[in-house]
What does this fold into?
Amino acid sequence: MALNRKIAYIDLSTGKIEIKPIPIEIRKKFLGGRGLDAYLLYNHTKKGIDPLGPENVLIVSGGILTATLASATSRCHVMAKSPLGGMVGSCNMGGFFTPELAWAGFHHLVIKGKAEKPVFLWIHNGKIEIRDASFLWGKTVTETQWAIREALGDEDIKSLVIGPAGENLVRYANVMTGIKNSGGRTGMGAVMGSKNLKAIAARGTMDIKIAYPREALEYNKRFIDQITSAKVNQTQGTLGTPFIWGATNSWGGIRTRNFQYNQMLYCDEIEPESIDENATKTIGPYHMAACFGCQVHCRAKYRIPSGPYAGRYDEGPEYTSQGAFCSEPDIPSLEALLTANHLVDQWGVDNLEIGSLISWAMELYELGILTDKETDGLDLRFGNAEAMLEMIRRICFREGWLGNVLADGGLIASEKIGKNSFDYLIQVKGVSNLHSDERATPALALNIATASRGSDHLRSRPAIDLYHLPVDVLRKIYSSPVPYDGPLSSEHTEYIGKPWQVFWHENCYMAVDSLGICKYHTTFLGATLPNFEDWSRVLYYNTGLELSPKDIWDIAERCNMLERLFNLREGLTRNDPYRGDMLNHRYFDEPTRRGAPDVVGRVIDREKFNKMIDEFYEYKGLDKNGVPKPETLKRLGLDNEPSHLL
Amino acid sequence: MEQMGKVLVITPEKCTGCRLCELVCSVYHDGVSNAQRSRIKIVKWESEGIYIPMTCQQCQDAPCMIVCPVKAISRDENLNRVMVNHDICIGCRSCVAVCPFGAMGFNVIDRKNFKCDLCDGDPQCVRFCDMKAVDYVDADKVAILKKRAAAEKITAAQRQAIVLESELR
It folds into this structure.
């Protein structure tokens, strides 16, 4: 049974390992995955701890539906206090690790303390061992994984690892698995590195009993038909996530030259079709790969066509890499894109963060805030591909003054660089923004401003807001599983109705992250994909757990509130530009310069933005300062936190 | 009679490596999720992005059938498959050792060998594979499909040759 998967507490300082069952009452309150991780983080950390100190906890988990028949149930979630912004640190990746972890008997690992020397965890069929990792230290992401397989003599072992960036405590280092499955954002790889934990290897052959196998199979088939018939997934299954680029860039939603423009020009070479052409040439007509049990197969395989790394195999690039390595630094080169993508995959660092910070440094360099002295002679102008690739290396290995400074993330770097460098840093809560430009899309602006792990598109983004869906379609989506009869608008430049959409998606995404399902299988990019109703069914057929759609919504709301409570404990305030629900001033002050007629010349209206925040807080049951009202905590059963139940 | 000639056809380059076939195989046969119990396995060369689905070929002169000391393995000509009778099987694993494809598994939990039974004519791996990297087609069609694929390459070459010739003129 999925419900008998266990939780393990591993203290790397003492070597003590404790294994416990996860009580059913806990499942009913927090499900698993990110939801239960939020509970564990709030309960196992104290206010104000050093994110890179032994007192931080690293929580690794699979969702409650991991490796069951709910399609795409491979998502792995990692949580800790973030060394980047000091708020909730959280990352989520696909691949094949969590099914192996679940077959080995575990859903959650709570890792505390710090090992004296490099170690890795070896988890197999109910057992956990702490092993010496000196032979792995210094190795890249894939080298580490292959070396573990060789050392343990089993090619079916799946590992979560850190690369050199994690070892060097780059504050936005990733946790990685496979070729490119990346737990990015908020530096969970640095937390792993700070604990001297190089890898977690898992291999399992324990049965997960399916509660109603026939029903689960039939419902899964229905689920799959729904997913594969959606046009958005068919496109994504052909071109990968870069398919979003074409439309978004043509209407003007791609931040370019850090934040100077909202559209990239002359970029045919990095259009999705060009990326696809290279994959066809270097791999073949069938070049898409998938995570465990997924029919979307959004991951392209490719080889680098030219340059110093020509011929190297990798996967991707994702839409995020197109922004981080092309539009933000204004480098329209396929070779640079595919090379940079390969470097970050091998060294294990967040592509969005590193690309965004390098572009910020480029703007500072052109403004004269940074000079050749700080860059050690590197010509860090926009458009310089070699300089970008060199900066990626310097950051991952903390080389040179600027490389070392940027490795600490935007907030710390802006203090060290000084002057008015902070004004140009496009971040929320210390986390750099994706390359999307939200000045023409208030709903998306509200999403990044309020996302719990800092500026982020995967916490609450109502991406379907860009499709101009008729109001009755929106009504159908957004008034279930809880009623909503407030205003809704099909217009993406509008402010009305958006707070409810962001609130709805925040709960939707928390639910998928706790179930362990991928966001491409829900109302993220496709309006017709499964959500609460279907999850209630698959949960029952696979695990036997009976929860209504409304129950799942309530759990999601509860877990989101736990993340909010954590952030409040760490000093979140509403309007603080460093750690608040607040955007960079350029969103309000600098009008967009390019794009479609209804996009050009737009800024976010400060007053209307504030109103959106007010309304959003109201839906969440927060007061004007963003603090939960006592009755909200009571309603969500959180009036007694931390409750230390697990 | 329609079912009689059907065989599993695997086109490895179409495989996305998702392993849903392994999951549905174990749930369909054993009611559990456990890739170790699956009759089909995706063998991977991850660092090159190569994924090959491996399963029983239902051989005509099946080595497992020949090697079995107690004649527990036989051909079911109705469904064109090789079957194990576990009432007779003594669990010696000779079949596991002799199979040239590694398609005969041995389940360490139940202490029994296991192999693909084509799900009695509705193979779940085929049903759930959206790429049809694993397909179930009439045996006489397999060669035709291969012929057509090869012929397409020849026609493409011919067309190119015509263009080249016309340019030379």
